[in-house]
Structure formats: C-alpha cells, structure tokens
Write a structure and sequence with these properties.
Blueprint (H helix, E strand, L loop, with lengths): L2 H8 L3 H13 L9 E7 L7 H20 L4 E7 L15 H5 L19 H15 L5 E4 H7 L3 H9 L1 H8 L5 H6 L3 E3 L14 E3 L4 E5 L5 E5 L5 E3 L1 H12 L3 E5 L3 H13 L6 E5 L2 E2 L16 H7 L2 H9 L6 E2 L5 H14 L5 H4 L3 H5 L13 H11 L4 H11 L9 H18 L10 H16 L6 H14 L5 H13 L7 H8 L1 H13 L6
Parallel strand pairs: 1-2, 2-3, 9-10, 11-12
Antiparallel strand pairs: 4-8, 5-6, 6-7
C-alpha cells in the first residue's frame, strides 16, 4: 500500500470520508459493470450556473479521493434530463413566441431559439459541455433523450411496468387528493403532438410492454413504455436511472432530501441499490436568504470569474459543503487569499497533512507551485491607493518590491492584478468614505511619518509592521484594532484593509509617507 493511500484511509477531509463510503458500498471489489459510476444531473431548461459548477467540482473531488484509496476504475457521467417537457418560456431566450408554441414538448423537440442547434435541449447541452470543458472537468455526457430512444433504459422501464403498483404506492402518500387520482409514473409522449402527457393509465399490458391511456377525444391510445415512447415522472425517473446505470455516487442539495428518500425506495423496488449520497446545503444571498434562479438573487459564476480565478470558487465549494454559506461578492477576496495561503503552505507540509490541504483536492493531488506573490487584499489596496485601473501602474510597485517579478514571469499574479483592479473598480471605489483623524490619531500618524522616514529603505515588511505596532501602543491604543481601523479609514477610505507593514513595503516608504502627509493635510477627504 502506498504511503499516500495509507494517509487517505485515515483522513478526515470530507471527500475521503465519502470515498470510504463508496468503498463500503462495493465491498472493496470492482462492480460487475467494471467501474464505479459517479453521476451529476443537469436540467437543461436553463443555462449551467454556479450550482452546476459546485456539484461537478465536489463530485470530482470525491472521485479523485476514491481513486487515491482504490484501483477500481471510475467514470463520471454528467446526465442531462433533456427529455423533460418545457413548462414555461425562459426569460433569457430570443424568439419567445416561437418557443411558446412548443410548450409541453421534450426540450430536445423544441426548436432552438438561438438558431445554432437542432433543438433547445441540444443548445443547452452544448453550453453545459463547453462550460464543463472550460474548467477541465473529466466526464462523459449522457442525454436522457438518447438513452430512452436507444433502449438503454428499456429493461428497467419494463420492470417499472411490472412493479407499477409498488412504485406508485411510494409516491401517492406525498400527493394531494386530485393529483393522487390521476398519478402515473409513466408520461407518454403524444403520438400526434409530441407533448409529454400527464394522464392516468387506464390499462397495463405486461406481455406487450405497453400502457393505455385516454386521449382528449376519449379514444384509447396504447403506447410502448420502451424506445422513448414514454418517460418517467422525475422521482421515478431518478430511481430508474440509478438502477439502469447502477450509479454508485450522486450528491444533491438539501431541498431534495425527500426526493432522494423516495427515489431510493423505488430503486430498491426495481431491484437496484441506491447510490451513496451526499446532501449539501444551499447557498444564501447577501441578506441570508436562499438563492433562487427564478429570483436572480445571489451571484452567478460569470460574476465570480470576473473578479477572481476559478480556483478560488473551487475552494468556496470545497469548504464545509454541509453548511449554508453566503454566496455574494464580499466573500470573493477572502476565498482568493485563503486559496493562495493553502497553495503556499502545501510544499512545506508533512505528507500526511498534504492530502488534507484543500489545494490537494482542488488540483486532484497535484497543486501547482505557488508564485512568490502578494495577497489579493494587498493588491486591492494597492489599486485603491493608486486610484488606477492600469495594470502597468500596479506592476511598477510590484516589480520594485519584488525585483525580477514581471507579468511574464508570474502570469498568475498578473491575472490577480487584473481581478483586483476589476473588484476595486466595481466594489471598493464606489464605497470609499474617507474621514479626518481624531487628535489622538493625528498625533500617532505624525509619529508614524517620522518613524517611516527614519527607516532603512531596505526594511522588511515585518520591520515596518513592528514599527506600526510600536507607535500604536505608544499612543495609548489599548486595542490595536482601533489603531489599524483608523489607518484604513483615514488613508484608504474603508473600514478594513491589509497588513500595513506589507502594504507600506509594497507601496514604498517614501510613497507611504507622502500618502499619510496628504491625508493629514487634506481637507478634501473624498480621495
């Protein structure tokens, strides 16, 4: 057994905890199908979103943890429920009138309003695959429409027909009286219109593998349950898919707990073994309310990636999945800096600790070497003090602080500079509120100017930080947080800020002195 595998067997990192549950499920042996199957689901009535990224990223982390623990082959399937009937016209598509004429049809039978693919489902499926490819995920794409029509599900669909009563008896107690009277797990596709019908089944023919329902005109219509002529209601559909594909692992949000339980029961009725599941908490917006796609609150993946690298988003997804977390713009800087800290710490950690480092899970065991750089917070404040949206201006200070560091030699830092400028422009700059110092703060800052002037130009960030501490204590700031808050509010126009020693070192002692002098002399505190 490799040393890394030995460490993984005892790691408390949640992906390893999950991976060990999968090992229990398969009894440590390769399943009959020849591999362990991880699945993520996608509803293609809308475009991929931040939750899609989170589910695939987290599942990928568990998959890699399993691969560390076991030599059993694995596959990850991104499954699209593209045979669902289109219930309403999305707000963000063109040609809405055209789309409205196809309501109720499978998404793969609705013409593409964008005019780029054979169907609306195909368009969104392509967007999903491009989305996942852009992040480098390793997966196989499966379309529900293709699986139904190709016959991949036929054997299991016939089993649903055979065990029809047992299946509906799981679902009926969860329905209201009206829905209960008409419920059927089978949704036939109307031979005339192609619409997915929710109609009562009035007869089942097991030998023929068909169901019979009454058409609008009262005529009986008989259709096979196989070959894509019917699809299943989604809880039964989920269970059928788990059974037909022998899915070993699938995670889902807290809002689907009851559905997971019901689908698990149906899966067992069909002779399957429900997958190991993981329930993650839902995200909250800036007001602590649950994020809703229809409401549009919270943060989109495009918005996150405008201000920070995808690795920081992966870290956000890695941390405490079972805890509800605010997903809003103000969490971005902290996640970038936490990612940088984990990456920088990795090489110096003991081997037993490396697999507990989030960077190990984000990068599938091979984190890149950290560039000798600066925190995102420092770069944000540099942009703030420079009042510049020009990367070259920030690089002037960075290259002087770290000779030899250039955009070419440190491409990741260069990307961070661009992110910092964008974040400063949109979130920091509009909120800046400078204030005048109190008399006590002014006296301390005047001494700080003298102290910085007297320091050697080669002083380290730690030396400068010690000087800032020393002056704060000498001027009676019992809680040094008050001293630093005064520096932030007077010099930067914000209530929070960087480690001042590091910031003054990066900005330059002369420039820092000039900054303080200007703040002390200025009556115009608008910045």
């Amino acid at each position: 057994m490799s040393q890394e595998r030995e460490f993984a067997l005892h790691s408390n990192a949640w992906p390893f905890v999950e991976a060990r549950e999968i090992l229990k499920r398969i009894g440590g042996k390769t399943p009959e199908k020849g591999y362990v199957l991880f699945e993520t689901g996608y509803g293609p009535s809308g475009l991929p979103h931040i939750g899609t990224f989170g589910e695939v990223a987290r599942t990928t982390m568990v998959r890699h943890a399993f691969q560390t623990l076991s030599d059993v082959p694995t596959r990850l399937v991104a499954f699209s429920d593209d045979m669902d009937g289109l219930r309403k016209v999305p707000d963000n598509v063109p040609n809405k009138d055209m789309v409205s004429q196809h309501l109720g049809k499978p998404l793969t039978s609705v013409p593409d309003p964008f005019g780029t693919h054979d169907s609306f489902g195909a368009h969104n499926n392509a967007r999903l695959q491009a989305f996942l490819d852009a992040f480098g995920f390793e997966y196989e794409f499966r379309s529900a429409t293709e699986c139904y029509k190709r016959g991949d599900f036929d054997a299991t669909l016939l089993r649903v027909l055979e065990r029809f009563d047992a299946v509906i008896n799981v679902i009926l107690p969860t329905l209201g009286p009206e829905r209960r009277a008409t419920y059927s797990p089978f949704l036939p596709l109307c031979p005339k219109t192609g619409v997915v019908l929710q109609v009562p089944v009035i007869e089942r023919k097991l030998d023929a593998g068909t169901i019979v329902y009454a058409d609008e005109d009262g005529k009986k219509v008989e259709v096979p349950v196989t070959g894509g002529n019917c699809k299943l209601q989604w809880k039964a559909d989920w269970a059928m898919r788990w059974t037909a594909l022998d899915v070993d692992y699938e995670m889902s949000g807290k809002d689907l707990i009851d559905s997971v339980r019901l689908s698990g029961k149906i899966c067992r009725i069909l002779g399957g073994n429900p997958p190991v599941g993981y329930t993650y908490e839902l995200f909250l917006d800036e007001n602590g309310e649950k994020i809703s796609k229809s409401r549009g609150n919270g943060l989109t993946i495009e918005e996150w990636l405008e201000y920070a690298p995808p690795e920081s988003l992966a870290l956000f997804m890695y941390g405490k999945p079972k805890t509800a977390k605010r997903l809003y713009f103000d969490v971005i800087p902290r996640n970038v800096d936490d990612y940088l800290s984990h990456l920088a710490a990795f090489p110096g950690q003991e081997d037993a600790k490396k697999i507990d480092n989030p960077a190990w899970h984000i990068h599938s065991g091979l984190p890149p070497a950290a560039e000798d750089g600066l925190s995102f917070n420092i770069l944000l404040n540099l942009a703030s003090v420079c009042h510049s949206e020009d990367k070259a201006v920030l690089w002037h200070f960075i290259s002087r602080y770290r000779p030899g560091l250039t955009p070419e030699s440190a491409p990741f830092i260069d990307r961070l500079v661009g992110y910092a400028i964008a974040y400063y422009r949109d979130f920091v700059k509009p909120q800046k509120q400078f204030r005048a110092p109190t008399d006590a703060e002014r006296a301390a800052m005047e001494e700080l100017v003298s102290g910085l002037r007297a320091m050697d130009k080669a002083a380290t960030a730690e030396d400068i930080q010690n000087k800032v501490y020393e002056i704060g204590k000498a001027h009676g700031f019992e809680n040094l947080r008050d001293w630093f808050r005064a520096l932030y509010e007077v010099l930067l126009g914000q209530s929070q800020g960087p480690r001042m020693g590091s910031f003054f070192a990066l900005y330059g002692l002369d420039e820092s002195v000039a900054l303080i002098d200007k703040a002390l002399a200025s009556e115009d505190l608008s910045g």
